[in-house]
Fold this protein.
Amino acid sequence: MQQHYHLWSIGCQMNMADARTLAARLESLGYAPCRKPEQADVLVLNTCVIRQQAEDKINTMLRHLQPYRAKRPGMTLAVMGCMVGKRELPQLQAQFPFVDLFLPPSEPEALLALLQRRELDAAAGALVRTRAGEDEWPVLPASSQGQAITAHVPVVLGCSHACSFCVIPSRRGAERSRPREAILLEARRLVAEGVREVTLLGQIVDRYGLDLGGGYELADLLVDVAQIEGLARVRFLTSHPNWVHDRLLDAVASHEKICPYIELPVQSGSDEVLKQMRRGYTVQQFRELVARVRARLPNAGINTDVIVGFPGETEAQFMDTYRLLEELRLDAIHNAQYSERPGTPAARRLPDDVPAEEKARRWQLVEDLGKRILGEKHAGLRGQVVRVLVEGRDAKRDRWFGRTPENTLVYFADAREQLGQLVSVQIDWTGPFTLIGQPAEGA
Ligand code: SF4
């Protein structure tokens, strides 16, 4: 009988890439995906703990799953991702004894081995499966396993930096680069399956290869991936302001397939706060970096991350951040309110002392600023032609959608089949987050 898996995933692109890898490996064992968790023989929750809210959501979900899990002795329930830190494991096992396996991020082997063992047991008649009625199951949000046109490929796992607010080093371990051959093999396989755009991922993707020695770095890897026949585009994220070197920028500038898009998290516009965050750069150094990127890649899309309400952040320090963002006019601001994460240096040393209402107020100010800047910048694109890689179709609005090389979302109507195509689109409507247009003459 056909066995099914359901993979529910939240969090960053690295988590999405882990989910895709696990899905592929489950399928190679003969499991087929199913949309409804209640139909799954293997249910995996791929978790994120970057914010308290995300962790709370998974805890609630697990509590709801407990009674249903009890009715399905033959099913396998696994929890994967950043919730599963080495230090946290004993506590998780005690709290959720009905979970079969806890898998650290990017390490699905134990689940695959367990399934293979269970298959052998089942073949020997030792396993009795029962199915509960579907309507007895809690409804879990749909899994997001990525698009067939775009895919993420992890190239650097873990992180050896120690930003004081961040749980990643303790959950994903020390930084290690994957071998070049494994990455190219994976990218070629994805392209053979129809993927047209690959994003190379790392917590600090610019550090790719530094731990391997030999001088083969991200710039070289991007060029090699860009040469894969059938691939339309390659991207990379996330960058760290200290590790973006000219060699990388030059590689982007000289290859059409490498997208001029860079994620540069600034986190704060105050030197004192950056020091407390242990980011390792100053505001002025960040400014100079943005100028350097723009000098080499004049039209690059530059996105940033900001944390408001970091412990001790004063109104004046917050306003430094606000004014820096106003001055730099970047292309997107991922804006978050500080959320204390247990086990981080900030949680140990710094009281979470900015009141919730104040964090929310600062967050809203940055949000409004980002919206205004983007609205103004996008307005300048009206009447212009942009090149869009079509990622899918919005069936409700009967139009295609895709992204520009700078990562701006574009919609356009066209009766022709355009999935996976590079289309020139003339823009006739712009908003802060999307552009709408029509195929340009002769597109
Ligand atoms: S660079 Fe800092 S914020 Fe980014 S993953 Fe590493 S520790 Fe976390």
User: Anything to note?
Assistant: Residues 4-136 form a domain with the Rossmann fold fold (CATH 3.40.50.12160). The longest strand covers residues 385-394. Residues 61 and 140 are 8 Å apart (CA to CA).
